[in-house]
Amino acid sequence: MADSGNCYKVRLCCAQLGITLARRPVNILAGESRTAEFLALNPNGRIPLLQLPDGRLLAESNAMLGYLAAQSSLLPSDRFERALVHQWLFFEQYSHERFIATNRYWLHILGDAEFYAEQIKANEAPGYAALDVMEAVLAKSPFIAVGTYSIADIALYAYTHVAHEGGFDLTDYANIRAWLNRVEAEPGHIPMSA
Ligand SMILES: N[C@@H](CCC(=O)N[C@@H](CS)C(=O)NCC(=O)O)C(=O)O
Q1: pLDDT of amino acid 6
Q2: Which of 117, 127, 154, 164 is the least crowded, having the fewest Cβ atoms under 10 Å away?
């Protein structure tokens, strides 16, 4: 799904690692991730879903990043640094994506601010709390998990760079905005629209 940040993470990682990816569109708005055929591939009924050349299937965008980036500079070999990358991948899913991406889904993808008004409001404080955490970390480090660009940056970039589409204003987040520019300057970067 072109507009999905979770799908974009995988496209961006593959582009930067020179991995060829064949895309198969799944229209979640038409229920295509909930058909019996799709549920047989991913019982959780969600995209992205990665199929390896040998047919094996992998769900969960951040698990895909870990698989694709293994033995590359995007996933440190040092055991503790690798754990730090995982720390931020879990942060992305539990403290960031479920507020920032969800508000974006309701506002930007579904375009139904009125119907979801109460939930959108409820997600604002925890969404900004996640941005506050990132802002503080990025005051001291050029990248989020370790001193170099990693899949933690890819995972958090995906929905942070479009946070405004979920109603989150980054004006007061100078460190995050500088980090977005650094991520975009990394070799092989592609935009979400690519
Ligand atoms: N934790 C999952 C979240 C996946 C997810 O929520 N995907 C959305 C699109 S971004 C989806 O498939 N929604 C359709 C549905 O729930 O039916 C990941 O990171 O891959």
Answers
A1: 98
A2: 117
